[in-house]
Records
---
Amino acid sequence: MGRVAELAGVSVRTLHHYDRIGLVRPSARTPAGYRAYRADDMERLREVLAYRRLGFGLREVAELVDDPSADALAHLRRLRGLLRERRDLADAMVAAIDREIAARAEGVTVTPEEQLGLLGARLYDAIGGAYPATRRTEPRIAARIWEALGEARTVVNVGAGTGSYEPADREVTAVEPSAVMRAQRPAGSAPCVAAAAERLPFADGAFDVAMAVSTVHHWEDPMAGLREMRRVARRVVVLTFDTDEPGWQDRFWLTRDYLPEFAAVLADFPSLGGMAEAVGAARGEPVPIPWDCADGLFEAYWRRPEAYLEERVRRAVSVWTRVGPEAERRAVRRLGDDLRSGRWAERNGDLAGLDAADLGLRLLVA
């Protein structure tokens, strides 16, 4: 027990306590008669300590590790999801602190409500809670996706988020690793499985179609996730982004003139050709973005530039968190200056007559 305590970084007293309450009981004996841990005991101890270090109480930990539906791999996936959410929370907190530091440095008074918001519910809003405020189903984009589903009856929506583009007339199973996003799915929406795209917990060919909408860039290993979609479904439909076209960064005035850091965000993103090959699609079909797009995705406000000055709009788009607070502040400041001076209108006056714009969204259909 002493050696196990040393390896685990806990006290022998802690291990005795776990043994006494039945949380982790060593089930073997040494030749001298001392109690010892078998491999499965060590695995259970690892799970207990991991959940404890994430802040779970002993009663909660006991319920988690005694869950009959979860094996060691399921626990690892759950722990990974919790850690990624913790990382996202830390990133959002750092961004909030940076904004307050910048405000104080400029002599701006920070209200008590804003100070408490750094640690309270508004911080969670900054991570995921702001999403439903501006991210809704855009009917014209939805029509393209649903048409691509064809006659499929069973659909798995990978990286489903709040389920904006899930068809109501099909049997849908959603997959979403984030508890924050799962909690925001509306009542009556499709059942949602907590899992990652790269490791879908389904049998080969379990669905007619696997779909993914504006989510591939969030995956840890996009190509692995796409191959998994191909494995679990007979057909695949993916709405994603094209970085194959030379000068793709200049398609959108926001990334061209104000946020060049966006190129680095997608530096490791797979090519459209590579993604198409992974799912067996012949090509990527352009999906123009309407000027009055209801879904507040990154490019949605291409003809409504004032929207990018709104905090609630930016918080619902991951790009702003990815580029960091300094780039965000600079982009917003320069855009605001150009809107007030009329420079933005001079550079982009030709957009006023367009009803839709091709800004790189592509639909892969296999």
Note: Confidence is low (pLDDT under 50) at residues 120-127.
---
Amino acid sequence: MTVYFIGAGPGAADLITLRGARRLAACGVCLYAGSLVPRELLAECPPDARLIDTARMDLDGITAELVRAHEEGHDVARLHSGDPSVFSAVAEQMRRLDAAGVPYEVVPGVPAFAAAAAALKRELTVPTVGQTVILTRVAQQATPMPPGEDLATLGKSGALLVLHLAARYADRVVAELLPHYGPDCPAAVVAMASRPEELVLRGTLSDIADRVREAGVVRTAVILVGRTLGAEQFGDSHLYSAERDRGGEDGHGGAGGC
């Protein structure tokens, strides 16, 4: 039997992938993060599936449930919000399953930063303005940042920064990024991206912290900072340029943005 780590997407139930929904529908046991995963997704599980909310469980308890279900002969869905590849705490679960000899598969999902960009109606990489996106967070008491990954250091790149788990620290984010981006740099906060209660705040580094405070946003949000958020005057991409030699290509050239 197999454990499936499934990315449930950023919040809207219909943003789970087809593969994720199919895996979910075939699993006799589903462990889900009750505080983050939309309840509507649980309707995809078999009617007799065992549903386990992990919101108040620790790593040992979660691992025990995964191993138990495997030993009972069940395929298991481990439903995570967003995409398992970033800020999902999946790495330590996979490490434990490796030690227990339990097979698993990872099913990607729509990440929160992609849903935030969609809400803003912005491409995060813009020709001649910015071609780099950094996904990061801020240091907290529970989990410190590794050396060299503080905002002051990352900010020197000038890249578009997407900060997860940082809304309650908006003032600190602004203070650390102002010397590198300047007060007029576009900034935005998207809370509850893709959900009915989605909230979009736009501004600059000079006022975004005030907007966050006034809106009362403290969780389930991403902060975006960078020039591409406000870019209007920029050259067209070479991808679809009329001057591009397309001999022998399929029209896309293998570009990831097709």
Note: The mean pLDDT is 92.
